[in-house]
Amino acid sequence: MTDPSRALSVMTLLHRLADATVTAYNRDRRQNPERFVGCTDGLGPDFLFVENVARLLGCNVDHVRRVPRSELPASKIGQRLVYARADVEAYIRSKRDTGTARHVATRGPQKLQLVAADQATRATPLILSLVPSDC
User: How far is CA 96 from the centre of its chain?
Assistant: First the structure.
């Protein structure tokens, strides 16, 4: 048989553990709300905090805050910036690089210059062509 006082102490310990877990969870929700965006009682999947947007864009929070609101609209709720996911996706699409000629570097055939080890003191390097000679 189990001792009733021991069972009571175990139950008390479990209650304290449960209370501590709930307290830590609620504190984490207050301090890091961006981690709980997908929760049913949070903002849901349609809205993002600035930290989530920074993570999506691969930059820091300060960069996201410096983006003009005309390019990336945001709502300020209290002291928090909240972005619509559709606006963030539209911003990403607007920044797409389509590879126009002004962005693509065009280079002709390149020649690689190698200096032979026994000729390293000479001023003229040995030139090998990476392009076939019939070009």
Answer: 17
CB 128 within 8 A of CB 114: yes
pLDDT at residue number 64: 93
Is the separation of the CB atoms in 45 and 86 below 8 Å?
no
For 126-131, what is the mean pLDDT?
49
Residue whose tokens read 């449960």: 18
Rounded CA-CA distance 135/110 in Å is 12
Give burial (CB, 10 Å; 0-12/13-18/19+) of 33. middle
Q: What is the average per-residue pLDDT within 101-128?
A: 58
Number of H helices and E strands in the chain, helices first, is 4, 5
Residue identified by tokens 């000629």 is: 101
- For the chain, give the mean pLDDT: 75
The per-residue DSSP string of 39-65 comes to STTSS-TTEEEHHHHHHHHTS-HHHHH
